[in-house]
Design a protein that fits this description.
alpha/beta, 22% strand, globular, 6 strands, six-stranded mixed sheet
């Protein structure tokens, strides 16, 4: 058994298959899941695991070259907005409807148990070299 890192075998396998430029949507429990991408649903109950826990776990495993979130996050979920601004200084902000449209091109969707709205971010994978 793995000692550290991501233990969920579905998520670990999905991350290993990602390449440069692939999108990963990390979303709250209420975000509509687009058809097509591989989905790893980590939601256990409301708030578990949190958006912050999942995002930080993914950032420890991935190289991210860009991130996109909804501009409405600042007003609707200030805690998520602060978290995203702290993790991604060059965060791209788009309308929530645009974020949902962009999410349909994601290669992977990771659903958290987050029960607060607008705790969503679309990550663009980079390379480690």
């Amino acid at each position: 058994m793995k000692r550290s890192g991501i233990l969920n075998r579905h998520l670990a396998g999905a991350l290993a298959e990602l390449g440069h430029g692939h999108g990963v949507l990390v979303c709250d429990a209420g975000m509509p899941i687009p058809p097509g991408p591989r989905v790893v649903d980590l939601a256990f109950r409301a708030g578990v695991p949190s958006f912050a826990e999942v995002l930080d776990g993914l950032l420890a495993e991935l190289v991210v070259e860009g991130a996109t979130a909804a501009r409405e996050t600042d007003a609707a979920n200030p805690a998520a907005a602060r978290l995203l601004a702290g993790r991604f200084p060059q965060l791209e902000l788009v309308a929530h409807e645009r974020l949902k449209a962009l999410s349909s091109g994601a290669r992977l969707v990771v659903r958290t148990g987050e029960a607060r709205p607008y705790a969503n971010v679309l990550l663009r994978c980079g390379v480690f070299f």
